[in-house]
Design a protein that fits this description.
By secondary structure, the chain is mainly alpha-helical. The chain has helices spanning 10-21, 28-35, 39-46, 50-75. The protein is 71% helix and 0% strand.
């Protein structure tokens, strides 16, 4: 049985945004923020549907493969 992924509801998105914008002291989110993780990028990803996230990941992967191939050709 495969799991079906659905976009976040407006309530879920609002809760997630609140936690990311105002992390609780001592939380892992706060630690990530202090380490330098740009939490606004996570928020923008959460606003996308699962299908849009996959599409963007595939586009990034294809771009990385093109760059890798170009680097191999230059190295020869």
């Amino acid at each position: 049985m495969s799991k079906r992924w659905h976009p976040l509801t407006a309530e879920q998105l609002a809760r997630a945004e609140e936690r990311l914008r105002h992390p609780q002291p001592g939380s892992r989110i706060e630690a990530a923020q202090k380490f330098g993780v740009d939490l606004s990028l996570l928020i923008s990803q959460l606003r996308l549907t699962p299908a849009e996230r996959v599409r963007r990941a595939l586009d990034a992967s294809a771009t990385a493969e093109m760059v890798r191939g170009a680097a191999r050709r230059v190295a020869k």
